[in-house]
């Protein structure tokens, strides 16, 4: 019996020997105003900027429940030992906990909630499944930065995601001020794909989740992007959310203030964009980083 391996063209080559800027070959918004809660103007703005903000996505009661759960998880020694937990390089404080949509009932509920999934389906124009989820703590005083990157570049190179038909939502669990390391996005950068130089090391995720190395864009190109697109700093109160396209150039600074900057981060991928073999890595990342369970979310 012969097995046919579905060959998927690599439209977004990366981690080879040159750093190039490739125009996006795919639409950003796949759905229509009739497909969900976003109106035509919101969808147009998302297509143009690559992100949108949602005021008060969750209730004050849900916010308190999530914050209590965040504290409980960070203090659980078993959680700290788990391979899905990443700790800060120097302080040993919890930096991120991955796969919380599967390991935790409270976060599984919000990850499959219509307030979130309906929006992801509308942007992606199809049923969606969860490619990845994480809690980012960014604790006060010691929360480290996330350097400039495109999530899609990593998900394409290391998880085998064919096209950028994926969207992330970051639900703020603490207030995001200009000074405590909020998300920064270059508006419009998602329409251009920056390929990176340098091969992906074996087991790259073991260091990339603390400090990304492979796939980091070239500083000269980053400077050109910053000059061309500018940098939006996404401040906002706890309970709000930001949705952004998988190929937005984004980053966040470290947090030297006493005020932690914690969020829940969930990545929705179109069921028509399921991963194949990695496009630029020796082997696929573990399932808790790039899920191979394509069960539609919210069903
Ligand atoms: O490697 C990843 O999948 C993760 N890294 C970053 C910095 N953002 C996206 C994602 O959570
Ligand atoms: Fe990211």
Structure, explained:
By secondary structure, the protein is of the alpha+beta class. The chain is 25% helix and 20% strand. The protein is built from nine helices and 13 strands. A seven-stranded antiparallel sheet has the order 2-11-7-13-5-4-3. Strands 6-12-8-10 form a four-stranded antiparallel sheet. The protein has a two-stranded antiparallel sheet with strand order 1-9. The chain is globular, with a radius of gyration of 18 Å. The structure holds ligand 6CS and fe (iii) ion. Fe (iii) ion (FE) binds at residues 149, 151, 250.
How many β-strand stretches? Answer: 13
Rg is 18 Å
In the predicted model, the low-confidence regions spanning at least 5 consecutive residues are: none
Largest sheet: 7 strands, antiparallel
| Distance from first to last alpha carbon | 35 Å
Share of β-strand residues: 15-25%
Strand order of the largest sheet: 2-11-7-13-5-4-3
- Helicity level: 25-40%
Shape: globular
* SS field, number of helical segments: 9
Hetero ligands: ligand 6CS, fe (iii) ion
Query: pLDDT average, as an integer?
Result: 95
Element pattern in H and E: EHEHHEEHHHEEHEEEHHEEEE
Backbone structural class? alpha+beta
Cofactor: Fe(2+)
Subunit structure: Homodimer.
Protein name: Ectoine hydroxylase
Keywords: Dioxygenase, Iron, Metal-binding, Oxidoreductase
């Amino acid at each position: 019996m012969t097995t046919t391996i579905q060959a998927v063209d690599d439209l977004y080559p990366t981690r080879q020997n040159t750093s190039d800027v490739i125009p996006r070959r795919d639409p950003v918004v796949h759905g229509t105003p009739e497909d969900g809660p976003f109106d035509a103007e919101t969808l147009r703005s998302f297509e143009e900027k690559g992100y949108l903000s949602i005021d008060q996505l969750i209730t004050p009661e849900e916010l308190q429940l999530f914050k209590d759960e965040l504290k409980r998880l960070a203090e659980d020694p078993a959680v700290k030992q788990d391979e899905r937990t990443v700790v800060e390089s120097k302080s040993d404080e919890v930096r991120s906990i991955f796969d919380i949509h599967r390991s935790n009932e409270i976060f599984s509920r919000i990850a499959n909630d219509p307030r979130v999934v309906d929006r992801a389906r509308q942007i992606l124009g199809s049923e969606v499944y969860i490619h990845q989820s994480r809690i980012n703590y960014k604790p006060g005083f010691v929360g480290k930065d996330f350097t400039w990157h495109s999530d899609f570049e990593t998900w394409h190179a290391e998880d085998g995601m064919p096209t950028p038909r994926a969207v992330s939502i970051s639900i703020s669990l603490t207030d995001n001020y200009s000074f405590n390391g909020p998300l920064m996005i270059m508006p419009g950068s998602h329409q251009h794909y920056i390929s990176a130089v340098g091969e992906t090391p074996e087991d790259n995720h073991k260091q990339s989740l603390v400090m990304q190395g492979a796939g980091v864009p070239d500083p000269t190109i980053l400077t050109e992007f910053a000059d061309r697109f500018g940098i939006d700093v996404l401040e906002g109160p706890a309970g709000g959310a930001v949705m952004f396209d998988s190929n937005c150039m984004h980053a966040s600074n470290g947090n030297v203030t006493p005020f932690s900057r914690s969020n829940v981060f969930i990545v929705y991928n179109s069921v028509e964009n399921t991963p194949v073999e990695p496009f630029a890595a020796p082997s696929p990342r573990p399932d808790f980083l790039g899920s191979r369970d394509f069960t539609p979310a919210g069903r």
